[in-house]
Structure formats: structure tokens, C-alpha cells
Write a structure and sequence with these properties.
Blueprint lengths: L1 E5 L3 H12 L3 E6 L2 H7 L6 E4 L5 H7 L6 E4 L4 H14 L4 E5 L6 H6 L4 E2 L1 H14 L7 E3 L4 E7 L18 E8 L2 E3 L12 E7 L3 H8 L6
Parallel strand pairs: 1-2, 1-4, 2-3, 4-5, 5-6
Antiparallel strand pairs: 7-8, 8-11, 9-10, 9-11
Length: 219
């Protein structure tokens, strides 16, 4: 995939290096020559000095052939301008913009722009870490080889499907309680906010379940 990253700060640099390591064709645009020089170390993509919403700079970066555009500078306004140019003028298929002020997210969503806030994501992750409780079995079967656990769907799980929490022979979602009513889910059932999910799991696979739920250490 051909990807353009506007902004060589922490988020932009890490994202660009990740995509480069996965074999994508990445170009990074920034006005900070020092940051771009640092970026070159161990980076297989291109770097271009310039304003990320300048038409000629974007053309130089290859936006006419780009398949994805990520605006990750430290300016919300610059990110939104660049994202709208990439989407509306150059018709890049996948466009996302970083927002430092999560309160603006709804405004830009109405404009049809996909945004993310590292501030909001970080706050949510702290909340999860501080409120996380170990998976305590509601009951066990046999000699304890299989356990039944229940968890409330976290924001990380919203929108995922039951198949994302299923490992045949090890982990199965057996029921979901939603708004006071229980249902037997299919693999394609989508998880919603505040769902209570009942999961049968081999006790030997509890760590794998924690990883699927985002509870694993370092996730």
C-alpha cells in the first residue's frame, strides 16, 4: 500500500516506521528538517520537507497514487485541512486525521472525516488499566479444565464480532446479555456497548483469552 504520513512527531514517526516494517511504501512529509533527518535512520521510505497541505508538496509525495493518507501533525487545523484535501481533491481511498482536542471529533465526523484522538485513546487505556479485574470463573466444569467467565464489553470490544473472541476447542462465547435479555450469539454477532459476555474457556487458555480481550500485559 502507498501511504503518505503528514507529520513526523511521535505518532507519525511510529506509524510510518510500523507501516514501513510491514512492507508498505511510505512517504513522510514535515516542515521540520531535523525530525526528518532523524526519521531516515532505519527507515526505508521517503521523506519530504514541506507543508503537508500544500498541493505541490502533496503531488511530490505521490498523493495522486496514494492509497492511504494519515494527518498526524501537532496542529488539529492543519490535520483537518490536509485530510479534506486528500479525500475531496485527490480522492485518496483511506484518510484519517489526528485530533489533540477530542471535543472536536463530532464536528469533523459530520464532515465525513475519520479522526482519532491520542488524548482520548490514552485516557481510555488508563481507565481500563485502573478498573481491570482478573477473570474470575463463575463456575468450572469437570475437574476445573473448563471455566465459565463473564465480562462487560469494553470500548476495545465494541464493534467486534463473536468470531474475534473465538478459538475453536479453547474459547467460545456461549451467551450475551443485552439490555436485560440473553441471546445465543452467532459467530457474526456484533458486540455492543454494555454487553455482558459469557465465555466458556479452557483454563489452560485463560492467558489467550486475556490477550483477545486486550488484558494482556503491555497491550
Amino acid at each position: 500500500m502507498k501511504i503518505i504520513v503528514m507529520g513526523c512527531g511521535r505518532v507519525g514517526e511510529q506509524f510510518a516506521r510500523l507501516m514501513d516494517a510491514e512492507g508498505h511504501e511510505v512517504t513522510v512529509v514535515d516542515t521540520d528538517e531535523t525530525a526528518l533527518e532523524k526519521m531516515k535512520q532505519g527507515f526505508g521510505g521517503r521523506v519530504i520537507v514541506g507543508v503537508g497541505f500544500d498541493r505541490q508538496i502533496l503531488i511530490q509525495a505521490g498523493i495522486e497514487q496514494a492509497e492511504a493518507f494519515a494527518a498526524t501533525s501537532n496542529s488539529d487545523n492543519a490535520n483537518i485541512i490536509a485530510a479534506r484535501i486528500a479525500r475531496n481533491i485527490f480522492h485518496v481511498p483511506k484518510v484519517v486525521a489526528s485530533l489533540y482536542d477530542p471535543r472536536r471529533a463530532e464536528i469533523y465526523r459530520r464532515l465525513g472525516l475519520l479522526t482519532f484522538s491520542s488524548t482520548a485513546l490514552g485516557a481510555e487505556r488508563v481507565r481500563e488499566l485502573l478498573t481491570y479485574q482478573e477473570l474470575e470463573p463463575m463456575m468450572t466444569f469437570g475437574s476445573g479444565e473448563v471455566a465459565l467467565v463473564n465480562i462487560e464489553a469494553s470500548p476495545l470490544l465494541e464493534g467486534k464480532q463473536v468470531r474475534d473472541l473465538t478459538i475453536p476447542g479453547e474459547i467460545h462465547v456461549v451467551s450475551i446479555s443485552r439490555q436485560g435479555q440473553a441471546l445465543l450469539p452467532l459467530l457474526g454477532t456484533t458486540i455492543q456497548a454494555r454487553d455482558i459476555i459469557y465465555i466458556a474457556v479452557l483454563t489452560s487458555a485463560l492467558d489467550r483469552l486475556k490477550a483477545l480481550l486486550g488484558y494482556a500485559e503491555g497491550v
